[in-house]
Amino acid sequence: MTPILVLVFGVAPQTAVGTDLLYAALTKVFGTAVHHRHGTVDWPVVRRLAFGSLPAAAATLAWMTLTSTAQIRGGFLIEAVAVALVITSVGILSKDWLQQMGRRGHAGVMGALGRSQVALTVLAGAILGVLVTLTSVGAGALGTVMLVYLYPVRLNPSRLVGTDLAHAIPLTLIAGLGHLALGNVNYGLLVNLLIGSIPGVLLGSWISTRAPMQVVRVGLAIILAAVAIKMFLT
User: 82 and 231 in contact (C-beta within 8 Å)?
Assistant: First the structure.
């Protein structure tokens, strides 16, 4: 969403990030509610991620305020979004490999280290907190990739999606409210995005049940990489 707002509609990067964060927080509530009803949210994992992501988001917002990063209309924020897109694209393409590595680690290294899984989850949350607050990118695809590696056995596909969605709500909400306080939210744009999300969710759900997942994954990764290149060249 942020690259579309910046590249297609000419929205200032900081406004695109702030508006997208609040939009994401509101739309993810509905998906999380469905997953919660079906018991596909692992709340202990959500709490572990939040222990890292929420303080990291708050610290990033404080840094943005103190260094006036929130006022940068190009350069830094655009490059940060591009980097996040590249990381997410690579993560999507390497998801299966990461899951295999995680399963081997779960049987060996992860089992030997014991509680390190909790610490690694908190660290993953902190990384997501910084990336999401700066760029609004990573709360979905990148978070899922991290969970695939950390919990290859505990989280099946449904619980993986539900857990990632549930964690994204407080993270995007806090980051979005911080950007709101910094004046980086366009209310009219936010309302229009929410109106458009209803048919968008219906269409996306229809497509996702019919298109081969591997094709969707590769296509999404290519699109993200292409957008990242475009943003680097902007």
Answer: yes
pTM score, whole prediction: 0.80
Average pLDDT over residues 1-13: 85
| Cα torsion angle, 102, 104, 106, 108, sign | negative
Residues 6 or more apart whose CB falls under 8 angstroms from that of 105 comprise 149, 152
pLDDT band at 127 (very low <50, low <70, confident <90, very high): very high
For 34, phi and psi rounded to 5 degrees?
-65, -45
Distance CA 74, CA 24 (A): 22
Cβ atoms 85, 3 nearer than 8 A: yes
d(CA 76, CA 61): 15
As a whole number of Å, the end-to-end CA separation of the chain is 17
Amino acid identity of residue 160, one-letter, is L
From the list 116, 146, 115, the residue with the least C-alpha distance to 53 is 146
The residue with tokens 């806090």 is 174
Q: Where are the alpha helices (DSSP H) in 94-140?
A: 95-107, 109-113, 116-135
Q: Across the chain, what does the average pLDDT equal?
A: 81
**Cβ neighbours for 162, distance < 8 A, ≥ 6 positions apart:** 32, 35, 36, 38, 40, 41, 42
Return the structure tokens found at 182.
């910094």
Residue bearing tokens 């680690």: 105
Q: Which two tokens stand for residue 159?
A: 């619980």
Q: Please answer whether residues 63 and 69 qualify as being in contact, where contact means their C-beta atoms are separated by less than 8 angstroms.
A: yes
